[in-house]
Amino acid sequence: MIDTPAEDRHAVDPHAGDRHAEQRHAVDRHAEDRLKERIAAELTAVRRRSGGLTTEVLDEQELVRQHSPLMSPLVWDLAHVGNYEELWLLREAAGIEPMRPEIDDLYDAFEHPRAERVTLPLLTPGEATGYIDQVRRKVLDSLERVRFTPDTPLLAGGFVYGMVVQHEHMHDETMLATHQLRKGDPVLRAAEPPEATAVPPAETLIPEGPFTMGTSDDPWAYDNERPGHTRHLDAYLIDTTPVTNAQFQDFMEAGGYETPEYWTRAGREWLERTGKRHPANWVRDGDGWAVRVFGRPQPLRPDRPVQHVCWYEADAYARWAGKRLPTEAEWEKAAAWDPVTRHARRYPWGDEEPDPAQANLGQHHLGPAAAGAYPSGASAYGVQQLLGDVWEWTATSFDGYPGFRSFPYREYSEVFFGDGYKVLRGGSWATHPLACRNTFRNWDLPIRRQIFAGFRCARDAHETSRA
Q1: How far is 208 from 70, CA to CA, in rounded Å?
Q2: Which of 39, 262, 337, 417 would be 211's cystine partner, CB 3.0–4.6 Å?
Q3: Ramachandran bin of 158, using left for φ above 0, alpha for ψ from -120 to 50, beta for the remaining angles
Q4: Is the pTM value of this prediction over 0.90?
């Protein structure tokens, strides 16, 4: 009998294929079990956060009141996240019959503008809490039976569960904006954000060349982040940190709001219509300024990024400074591209999950940290505070990438495409890390100021500026 070489013996073993398939199945099931454990933990954590913004800190009257026509009553947000969860995790993912189909219309964000939601027959806070708790119990129970099959896009990699968790975190940030607009007693507290450890350079050069924009392999990325594709950019300079209160005050004192040439035509119309002459929540304090933060007046900190400015204000400041807003592609290259490895990082510092030393995310603080406070969170090029602190307006209108495909529903992204919405990047101090990465895209109307938005500037590498 001829002896079979060791490396070929498994080829003649009639049971080897079955054993290898069993091993792969065991590995796949083990990975799926770990993913399910993480999903259950994330679902629990986000609901704890939602409760800390609603039923745990406010009475029924505060929950049902509309604190601003720009925002929904908090009780609407609370029931909406539960209804969205029921739709996607029970009806779609688990195939469970609808629990409360009669309320679907009430909590469909496209059916009723925010200003009208207070007039609807909404669930009371007690009813909303009972409903979302019941939904959650069924979700956790059904999670054990669901299989994350790769050939089912909604379930592959647990996508639909990640979508629902991120959705609730986004509404938690929206609820924080409602808290900022409340007139009642403050109910939120957090530690003060850190100070800067050093003064970073004013600008950072990003060399000419290609980079990968977006993603094709992040299992929890949204449709508008896909597909990953190559972009080529000329060299440009971008502000190392976001524009600060002191810098924006210089613009104001230089007559920035009164100088028409700094403003687009639409911006001038906005100025004329609103009469705005400073960021939202700034109030005069003698010869200087104070800022209202969740009902508490505080001295304006000159070294912190300016927030609650709209796109028109950001664009006008950039013109005054002899610069411009960065394009969305310029922002992402500065944040994500590693020119040494030629790899697009998930976060500015690398692919590791954020920690509090790298970025001001997740509501650990109730406002931006000082410019230069997170040097360990810098990108490969040395640009700082790209994630957290403030959402950053870009010059780009919201649209799909080449090869975009709507998934799992048009109303998440596609219906907003066009010149009406401007892209924001990077998240804010109120954004949870799970809903923040280099490829994540936010968008809003250029008039919006209630969101936690600021900006940084850019310019072509050959240009000079007044900075």
Answers
A1: 41
A2: 337
A3: left
A4: yes
Residue spans of alpha helices (H) in 321-378: 328-336
Question: What whole-number distance in Å separates Cα of residue 140 and Cα of residue 120?
Answer: 30
Q: Which residue has the tokens 């850019």?
A: 458
Q: Nearest to residue 326, comparing CAs of 460, 457, 463? A: 457
Phi, psi of 235 (to 5 degrees): -65, 145
Q: Is 286 left (phi over 0), alpha (psi -120 to 50) or beta?
A: left
**pLDDT tens-digit profile of 369-416?**
999 999 999 999 999 999 999 999 999 999 999 999 999 999 999 999
Cα-Cα-Cα-Cα dihedral sign, residues 36, 39, 45, 48:
negative
Question: Residue ranges per domain, the chain?
Answer: 19-181, 203-460
Q: Identify the CA nearest to 386 among candidates 305, 278, 281, 266.
A: 305
Quick check: 459 and 206 in contact, CB under 8 A? Answer: no
Question: Residue 75: which residues within 8 A CB-CB, separation 6 or more?
Answer: 54, 63, 64, 122, 123, 124, 125, 128
3-state secondary structure of 238: strand
Question: Does domain 203-460 bear CATH number 3.30.930.10?
Answer: no
Phi–psi pair at 462, nearest 5 degrees: -90, -5
CATH number at 19-181? 1.20.120
